[in-house]
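Before we proceed, please read the two lines closing this message. Report back on whether the structure tokens fit the sequence:
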Amino acid sequence: MELRVTDSTTTEEAEAIARAIASHVGERVELYVGDAEEPTASVSAPDVSDPTPGRTGSTTDRTVSTPGRTDSTTDDGSGRRSTPGGDELGPTDREERLWAEIEDILQGGPEKYRERLAEQGKLFVRDRLELWFGDPDTEGDVGVLFEDGKFANVDADERLPADGLLTGAAEFEGRELHFMANDFSVKAGSMARRGVEKFLRMQRRALKTGKPVLYLMDSSGGRIDRQTGFFANREGIGKYYYNHSMLSGRVPQICVLYGPCIAGAAYTPVFADFTVMVRGMSAMAIASPRMVEMVTGEEITMEDLGGPDVHARHSGSADLIADDEEHACELVAKLIGYLPDSCEDDPPRTDGRSPERSPEGIDAVVPREPNRGYDMFDVIERLVDAGSILELRPEYGAEILTAFARIDGRPIGVVANQPAHRAGAIFPASARKAAEFVWTCDAYGIPLLYLCDTPGFMAGSGVERAGILEQGKKLIYATSAATVPKLSVIVRKAYGAGIYAMSGPAYDPESVIALPSGEIAIMGPEAAINAVYANRLAEIDDPDERARRERELREEYREDIDVRRMASEVVIDEIVPPSTLREELDRRFAFYEDVEKELPEKKHGTIL
């Protein structure tokens, strides 16, 4: 077959087109550029007996499968195609040319840039979509349901397949969702006018469909040399974040980072409900290291400026850290299992499972001494379904645990003090983390379980400068405003305003229940004795006598703050044997499943 294309076609493009057509028509293709007398590309049909190489990360000589494409036609010499069964009508040369054009677009950017992806351990974007959504040519796989804007910039002066940004719909873990994905082989995944338009259109459609959005980000930011028409326009890149704000709390937005996302590209992950970074690959920052050095004089690497460790430990912007691309996909598969399609839907239920460890051991896990540390996970694993814990931001504000889990298949959000870290005192970072988690759970109808064991909010000049009051009020506000079912468990100590932050009796929980180890007080025994009796104790000269009197005062104080006193005064609803706590929580969550709560009529609060 001989074909001729315009003289603006490069040799590389001509070879790609020739390969694509030869593959689909099953015969040798000679492609002439412009008025050339000799073919620029001459490609034989591939041997169909050759096995298809498996995905290795390299996209050299890559054959892209095209959904809906069939090749069981023959040419009768008139430009028409005959099909099996004798029907003389079939795809024409015009359709074949369209298939060739599509195949060329699916190849992405220049081959040299695709090869670099493999060197960086990254997948070409369309291989990435296959990892996430499956191969439609493989039995049982769904693949991308459809793609929008594949022909964006097809008539541009330079070759910019899909304008470097893919959008469409797919099925993931049995759930339909919208997706966008940057093609880093096209201008380093940068965003320009047509790609921006596709992105905005996808967001607007998500608002209408009420389906989740998955952002697969690998972008260097806005295309600086092409900023006219997309940067400051009403429907430009700034509209991304307006739409993110409109989608927030409407549908889950999940962002996975695959490269150094700089400037405008870094805002999508922080606007998303959940952000996953890939170790050794991801980064995000308001400016590149080169720009930072130019503006501030600071010399810094991309990893130290905005790598996964920075955002997992210090900024709190990364919810989960993946080891590689496959692990990122696995983490999101688990995450989305707790989330509804939209705020109007219920979170998905699963079959219940017994806990990882027996509830019989709960009381033995909780130390008798209020100041002795232990790992709250030892309690949680005895309460929730085995294998159901997904902790978010584990390295940020570690004094509070925030995690999704299930009790008898029901998704819940767990907010728990962690006595293994700084005695479980609430610091600014942990307060902020918990507030944002509570706010997200409430947005998507996920019930909340508070496990309280804290000496309260941390004091000192350091935390004051870090905004302990500001962050603390946000946690209390989020807890106050949440309308999902809330259960609060006093595991051990609940001192100071910690009982407020952990949805104590004043915060309209459906239940406040306690274990026999529980204590509720303005402050702990040591601090209280020092505050009230310091002068009297100082007057006792005999050290042994002073120590004895201190012990007596502490015991008297602890009797006064014991949960039995609180239960007697009906401050709390119930004291339960620890071995029955899981069963108690299961029954209460089930009973309050349809509880209706109303907030005062107003536009919105001002705390957050």
Summary: DSSP finds 21 helices and 22 strands in the chain.
